[in-house]
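As the next step, I needed to go through one protein, both as residues and as discrete backbone shape codes, included below for the reader:
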Amino acid sequence: MSKEIISGGEALMRSLELHGVKTLFGYPGGSIMPVFDALYDHRETLNHILVRHEQGAAHAAQGFARASGEVGVCLVTSGPGGTNTVTGIADAMIDSTPIVVIAGQVATHFLGTDFFQEVDLVGITQPITKWSYQIRRAEDVAWAVARAFYIAKSGRPGPVVLDFAKNAQVEKFEYTPTKLDFIRSYIPVPDTDPQTITEAAALINQARRPLVLVGQGVELAHAQVELRAFIEKAEMPAGCTLLGLSALPTEHPLNKGMLGMHGNLGPNMNTNKCDVLIAVGMRFDDRVTGKLETYAPQAKVIHFDIDPAEINKNVPADIAVLGNCKETLAAVTQLLQPNSHTEWLDSFKPFEAVEEEKVIRPELYPMGDALTMGEVVRAISEATNHEAVLVTDVGQNQMMAARYFKYSKDRSIITSGGLGTMGFCLPAAIGATFGRPDRTICAFMGDGGLQMNIQELGTIMEQKAPVKIIVLNNNYLGNVRQWQAMFFDHKYSFTPMMNPDYLKIAEAYDIPAGRILSREELSEAIREMLSTEGPYLLEACVIEEGNVLPMTPPGGSVNQMLLEC
């Protein structure tokens, strides 16, 4: 039986279909045109979303992946097409998001000649990918795609780049469908040492003041059920990282809130009072730890992680439990003695009361006339029964949304955590609507971040993507302004923003829109936004010089939290 002779471009289409791809985000150009020509005949099976900028394609692929748990795919041309995806690739790397970026490249015989739109994309992206590979022959397409998807999704997920030379796109060859689940020398999930399971359980059983730090690794491992069983059996309080916020429902009685610089008072203060600190699928980011020298010096540290590189990188571990936390948490839980820590749990209450009085109540129920970010966020969360997916940009809008949104379902927060990419929200929210079309997608952004990728309103218009866009407009680059006020003597150096009329812009893109200036308008505006089919832009004009609190000052200790500024 003879094998079918097809082009490299056609082989890419079939390989994507073989790996379950149904949606991809991209932008055509000269060096990828043969692939787009092949894509034309696969429109019934591969839904290509035409973005308005390649950075938007990368972030949309991220949003798709984070919402769905599947690999996000984007398709761009060479040169600036590829380099425009670099921010999204770096963002995906640091936040462990599985995406495959396929970029066109000049034909192999032109490589190194400074040909039109030639750039060394492999060289540029090797430090910020799990794997970056140049396809120079058509017969390597199926192998490279299989390898790319396996590497992107397995172990600690992350981005992969395929740099697809134009000659390989048009060459003909005998195509063999290819999938794989093994690569020699690549160990996505390290073996778990049974002794570490026993030692971790013994240390937890002896603990009087255990504290569990919940990271995004719990979501990535689909270990939400195992996490709950783990903390409930020994009655251990937990705090969540920014990316791990929806791994544990907000209303779970053992969930003590968000960790980090703008997190909740209780888990941060008690980090330096616990006797056993149990980190699960988190990397001890500086925004969580504050000054490392003063971070939990009194505690024994247990670190559950799938990536050996994270062990002892920032915080030394007394016990390192390597492996997939879905399995390792369950194994430790079996050895735990049922326990209660009533006195330890009660120690969070005074901190909660102080934060409620000094921070939360003034933000949610302000005495002044101006709207606050927090009250807008909480009102929308409540209107969606706390079941929506939160997508944020970066800055005050991100911290306020993370703090005051509530989470009742898995995979409910999509934000740029490690890289802090302004402009992330709008395209990521588009991707999320395709990744989880069954859920409401609420995209909170500031007036600064919106304008960084505002062209993606065109993608929303064309796709009628049902993104609920909430612009928290304070006419400032708010987070930088807050730091300028606190640490730079109120010198607002280039942070005031002159803004356009966002309602007029929305009208030009045929997106329904509304604007609110007072809290009396808030509930009706939210009702209209959520009841409108398809996209909607709601501009909330909030207090101009509001501040995100509590706050650990830069360089400060985790328990050095400011309640006012």
The mean pLDDT is 98. Residues 284 and 314 are 6 Å apart (CA to CA). The longest helix spans residues 349-364. DSSP finds 24 helices and 20 strands in the chain.
